[in-house]
Specification:
alpha/beta, binds magnesium ion, binds thiamine diphosphate, 353 residues, binds iron/sulfur cluster, eight-stranded mixed β-sheet, 29% helix
Length: 353
């Protein structure tokens, strides 16, 4: 496990606020298909971590199995990482953040990895509010095993062969809100600005940030009749709000067009600000019922709703709830609180006898 902090580069290339070049946030060369939405998400993750000045040596990347779950190999090449088994990323992530709360955790999963085989793990992760950025790279199919429908595929959506899906989809955002996740958003791999802002806001949030990113599979699910194709998402997309993010270290004010009455400002844990400009309606992102209703109403109309649906900055994360030691477990010894002293144990035994 690496423990050193990255050293700033002495070169002339542009560096971020901790003195690191963008190249340090890259990983291996992608082996995914050219044009796969997952590759675009990887780029946005690289940019967001770099722009926020996150130290890659203090990040852990987690994933399950699928084309999407291969993505952590292509970003933050110097971070810690654990590629787990199919659908089991949440439990490995839970163990990692409990073991070392100083790490920033990012989990990448697929719609099959999360909503099919991993749904049990997903629901418990959401209700615990683990400090974790949980990204679903959602293409509606099992890309890695050649394009079978996943549980997020829309009713009536068609495979390349013409076979129609006869089951209703699971909306992972509605589920996450219902279960207690404290930052829930949906974005599109083709929307650079929105996805970048959402990722940066997630980095500033303390708790579970669940981001479902529609990410077309160009090989198995990008044809007419699919509701997760580039064309369908472009034609049927509806933004609930327009998302802007102002990091705590950035004094520059947001664009002039914003009228005070139209913006909802949310103060995030590190002092950054999330600015949600209303587009269609006066939407309150702290209202769980409104969030679930908006998702439901748009789904009924066959629309892909994107934006930040729900934010709660007050709920304690899982680590606070457990009253865990601040230091990583490997630094905790009996002397600094690893276990109760002998006298306390004797007192307890005394009480029980
Ligand atoms: C226990 C287990 N069951 C089934 C598989 C086969 N399998 C590998 S990836 C995958 C689905 C991946 O789909 P998704 O999570 O949507 O990722 P994508 O490839 O679409 O990005 C399946 C069923 C497996 N590896 N392990
Ligand atoms: S099969 Fe689909 S999901 Fe997998 S890499 Fe290719 S385009 Fe992406
Ligand atoms: Mg998939």
């Amino acid at each position: 496990m690496a423990t050193t902090t990255a050293q700033p580069s002495a070169g002339l290339k542009k560096t971020n606020r901790i003195g690191l070049e963008l190249s340090l946030y890259r990983g291996g060369k992608t082996t995914l298909c050219a044009g796969c939405g997952h590759n675009a998400i990887t780029e946005r993750i690289i940019e967001a971590f770099w722009e926020m000045g996150e130290d890659p040596y203090h990040v852990i990347k987690l994933s399950g199995i699928g084309c999407s779950s291969k993505a952590p190999a292509y970003f933050l090449g110097t971070s810690h990482g654990f590629n787990s088994i199919h659908g089991r990323m949440p439990s490995v992530a839970t163990g990692a953040v409990l073991g070392n709360r100083t790490l920033k955790a990012i989990g990448v999963s697929g719609d099959g990895d999360t909503a099919s085989i991993g749904i049990g793990q997903f629901v418990h992760a959401m209700r615990r509010n683990i400090p974790l950025i949980y990204i679903i790279e959602d293409n509606g199919v099992y890309g890695l095993t050649k394009g079978q429908f996943s549980a997020t595929a829309d009713l009536g959506s068609k495979l390349k062969t013409g076979v129609a899906n006869d089951l209703p989809p699971i909306d992972t955002c509605a589920l996450a809100i219902e279960l207690g996740a404290t930052f829930v958003a949906r974005s599109f791999s083709g929307d650079k600005k929105q996805l970048q802002s959402v990722l940066k806001a997630a980095l500033a949030h303390d708790g579970t940030s669940m981001i479902d990113v529609i990410s077309p599979c160009v090989t198995f699910n990008d044809h007419a009749g699919s509701t997760k194709s580039y064309t369908y998402v472009r034609d049927n997309r509806n933004d609930l709000n327009s998302v802007d993010f102002v990091p705590f270290f950035d004094e520059i004010q947001v664009d002039d067009e914003i009228e005070p009455g139209e913006v909802r400002e949310i103060a995030l844990h590190d002092g950054s600000k999330l600015l949600l400009k209303k587009i269609e309606e006066d939407y309150d992102p702290s209202d769980t019922m409104a969030a679930v209703k908006a998702l439901h109403d748009h789904a009924q109309r066959g629309e892909v709703l994107t934006g930040v649906f729900y934010v709660d900055t007050k709920k304690d994360n899982f680590l606070k709830l457990l009253n865990l030691h601040d230091a990583p477990l490997w630094q905790v010894s009996d002397a600094n609180g690893g276990r109760p002293p002998e006298t306390t144990l004797s007192e307890i035994m005394e009480e029980l006898s």
